[in-house]
Write a structure and sequence with these properties.
Elements (H helix, E strand, L loop, with lengths): L1 E5 L3 H12 L3 E5 L3 H8 L10 H10 L3 E4 L2 H6 L3 E4 L14 H13 L4 E5 L7 H10 L6 E5 L9 H6 L4 E4 L3 H15 L5 E4 L1 H32 L3 H9 L20 H14 L5 H14 L2 H8 L8 E5 L14 H11 L3 E5 L4 H8 L4 E2 L12 E4 L11 H7 L4 E4 L6 H6 L3 E3 L6 E2 L2
Helix pairs in contact: 1-3, 5-6, 9-11, 9-12, 11-12
This protein binds nicotinamide-adenine-dinucleotide (NAD).
The site of nicotinamide-adenine-dinucleotide has 26 residues, from helix 1 and helix 5.
């Protein structure tokens, strides 16, 4: 099949490459000329495991090409995927300027029947809006369908190739059949293809992401209660996670969710609900809980340092919003560092991948260290923000020798409590008892 993918970010480039891998001819379009030039020269602009290999293979097979020329892409394809950014606007709503902009262009440029499929995360009613915009110009038939994407950064190729389900939002038989055929190589092993109307498909994506964010905030509230009444949240996590009705994923307590999707999608659904006249109380609480949770280590640190942070020196391990990415968007580490800097703390930070991005934000205000140990030199305590693997088994003896106080405030429950006791650290984590050895 001949396909165009408009927008070549995490979703677009991965979708386009994977669709080419199963034999389709794919033209990827982007407005960013530098990015397109890079891709034409064989450079993959993002990091995703296994992407590079498939990218080169399909360019060589002449099934994958890159252009800024939308008209060329439209003329040479039947199916047009939109994988455009839908960032958060100032009021919390999803900013649809990129989607609208492309819809206008498509309307003006199509000269034969096309199926336009939206993969971006968009509020309910966007398919309808796109249809209206295109119809205001187009002199030919076309269909618009919703096909939300569920891939995860860091696992994007794997997730696209092995989707747990495909959601098709459309009432056009031609669009539904075309999409079913297109996804057959990925769904043949009993992966469900679920067909519904466009509005339901659009809401399915928001419902999925906000439900996951709710799970995280729920567990964080359980953890906060544990700290007061003396239960251990990690035991509770295992206890409830073994119940198949609940499931064991997304139950990890910590210092809150971040990243480029959950925060914006929760805000966008609250905004859409308010607009529709519905007060989505749970999601408002999810946002509130997450906001407080992000800096929940600070009062603990303050108390340990006799309520006086001024002039203290604190080490930070982990800056990215989750491990295995250099993405710092909405990362809890930003809230933590801001709060420390406000209190005149000298901050030493280390992250395996995200330091270049953090440097853009803080420059010389933070001391960026070569390795995890350097971030411990003469510090009053350590705060852990991200559960990178390399943090799990450090040399505790070396750590203690470097630190002024052997005190760890662990926002991701990286360490075992007994280990902390044996190694005589003062150790505070999330939803577990405080170890007061040091
Ligand atoms: P991204 O920012 O990585 O990429 C978007 C691309 O679109 C960029 O390359 C940009 O230059 C291009 N673009 C912008 N305007 C354009 C235009 N007018 N014409 C052509 N190209 C244009 O975004 P992303 O992470 O791939 O996300 C895209 C959508 O998918 C968003 O709605 C997001 O919420 C959703 N989504 C993202 C993920 C994820 O993990 N990143 C997962 C599922 C869904």
């Amino acid at each position: 099949m001949n396909i165009a993918v408009i927008g070549t970010g995490y979703v677009g480039l991965v979708s386009g490459t994977c669709l080419a891998e199963v034999g389709n001819n794919v033209i990827c379009v982007d407005i960013d000329e530098e990015k397109v030039e890079q891709m034409q020269e064989g450079v993959v602009p993002i990091y995703e495991p296994h992407l590079e290999e498939l990218f080169h293979k399909n360019i060589q097979a002449e099934r994958l090409e890159f252009t800024t020329d939308l008209k060329y892409a439209l003329d040479n394809s039947l199916v047009i995927f939109l994988a455009l950014p839908t960032p958060q606007d100032e009021d919390g709503s999803a900013d649809l300027q990129h989607v609208k902009n492309v819809a206008h262009k498509i309307g003006k440029k199509i000269s034969a029947y096309k199926i336009i499929i939206n993969k971006s995360t968009v509020p309910v009613g966007t398919s309808e809006m796109v249809k209206k915009i295109i119809a205001s110009y187009a002199k030919v038939d076309f269909d618009v369908a919703s096909n939300p994407e569920f891939l995860r950064e860091g696992f994007a190729v794997h997730d696209f190739m092995n989707p747990e389900r495909i959601i098709i939002g459309s009432t056009s038989n031609q669009a539904i059949d075309t999409l079913k055929n297109l996804y057959r190589p990925f769904t043949s092993i009993k992966r469900p293809v679920i067909v519904m109307d466009e509005k339901s498909a659009e809401l399915t994506k928001y419902a999925a992401n906000t439900f996951l964010a709710t799970k995280i905030s729920f567990m964080n509230e359980v953890a906060n209660l544990c700290e007061i009444i003396g239960s251990n949240v990690e035991d509770i996590r295992k206890g409830i996670g073994s119940d198949s009705r609940i499931g064991n994923k997304f139950l990890y307590p910590g210092i809150g969710y971040g990243g480029s999707c959950f925060p914006k999608d929760v805000n966008a659904l609250v905004y859409s609900s308010d607009e529709a006249g519905y007060d989505f109380k749970i999601l408002k609480s999810v946002i509130d809980v997450n906001k407080v949770q992000k800096t929940s280590m600070i009062p603990k640190v303050k108390k340990y340092l006799n309520n006086d942070l001024k002039g203290k020196r604190i080490g930070i391990w982990g800056l990215s919003f989750k491990p295995n990415t250099d993405d710092i968007r909405e990362a809890p580490s930003i809230d933590v560092i801001n709060e420390l800097l406000l209190n005149d703390v000298e901050v030493l930070a280390y992250d395996p991948e995200a330091m270049h991005n953090m440097y853009k934000l803080y420059g010389g205000k933070v001391i960026f260290c070569e390795n995890a140990y350097d971030a411990l030199t003469n510090v009053d305590c350590l705060i852990i923000n991200t559960e990178w693997r390399e943090f799990y088994s450090p040399d505790f003896f070396r750590m203690k020798n470097l630190m002024k106080n052997a005190a760890i405030f662990d926002g991701r429950n990286v360490f075992d409590l007994n280990l902390m006791k044996e190694n005589k650290f003062h150790y505070e984590s999330v939803g577990r008892k405080v170890i007061k050895n040091a």
